[in-house]
Predict the 3D structure of the following.
Amino acid sequence: MEDGLMARQISRGESRNSVTRNLSAPQGSRLFAKEQSVVNLGGAARAGKNLDLKNFISVCGSPSYILRRENFRGKNLRSGASDYAWHAGGGSLNLNSESSAANPSAAKNPHRKALILSDGRKGHENQSIAFCELRGLEFCICKIAYANKLLKLCSYALDFFGLYFKIFKCDLSGGGTAADCKNGSNLNSSALNSSVASDSANLDAAPNGRNLDASADRNLNFADFDLFVGAGSTTYYALKFYARRYAKPSIALMYPKGYRKDFSVIIAGAHDRPKPRANLKISPVSLSFSRPQGLYKPQRKSIGFIIGGPNSCFEMGDEILKQIEGVRAQFADCEFALTTSPRTPRATESALEKLSWDYSVIYSREPVNPIGDFLAQCEWVFISEDSVSMISEAASNGSASVAILSLKRKVAHNKFDDFISALVSTGHARRYDEALKKTAKYDLKAFVREIKI
């Protein structure tokens, strides 16, 4: 009898109330499919009260709707929870999830938490980490990938129509990275530190592909995160998916070309020439957060060289060697430190090795990153002009003044020219062929913390 009354009340409520819409993005006419909500309706039905169905979320696109009652008696629930809850959908009920209405919410950590969605590219991931560090956020990292290129292409079309489904992989088992939250927080999840975490935290392990976030909800409590952050095209659709699913802000780093720009906040570089929008914040540099690693400790005044490599705009040849020799002659009383990068040609590395160095990293043989040490301890750092990320890091971290070394061009004008010219005009960098006056640092922390989320 009680079950029949409940079903009739649910049916009438659905006809009167609209389906819950996306809470974190422009409303429009798009619906967002959720199969996560649990509504504790049993007590209200027994008390004869009118049911508030505003929190009831339909399972859109499902071939059938199943309303069933779960018996909690004897289960390990928090105190004060009802013995019963009504459950929409066919998946198993997560009895101890923070998102379950059968359980009162746990006390929030005083520090806000972010989930970084990473495409696996270190440059992109480091920008997301920098955002969290500069903002003072705890964070965890989750790797996003598509099974094939077709699915990624589909993400553009689905986003165009405002449709969000889990067509990507979300891997929380990448060598413990995701479990290693800043400040040691595991977000109240013992499973992440257990011997089975690597299996249960992989969202694609869900049986039959159903409710692919179920294992993550149990182990990482996605709903406990205050915002979702990502950089790179592989992450943008997933950002919107999770932001809508959990009604939390989405922070897109770099300009999300090809996708609709309805993120909560977009942080893009001025060199990308983005069109002005209310949710767009433009920075003259890429986000970075640099710390000394203790790899280099100079004994006297020092000059650092940070060498990149060829790309679509530049070639690297003898011209870089001539400039380095000129700098060394100009600062003959200093010691010299060098680091190459993953893109540095082997021929250039071999030529650089022939010079004497007080400290050197040849990245192809020793993949470590001493840039934080150079920026903190050198008087000047000289950087090849091929890398926005390396120049950005130097212009906004440490105390070293920054000078740019030129390379042979493939095209007459490119985005690097605009980027570097802007830094030179504001005194945050110099070109090597100009007077080497001390440079200022761009305050990225102030820029990031002024953004309202």
User: Anything to note?
Assistant: Residues 113-283 form one domain. The chain has a mean pLDDT of 75. Residues 81 and 103 are 6 Å apart (CA to CA).
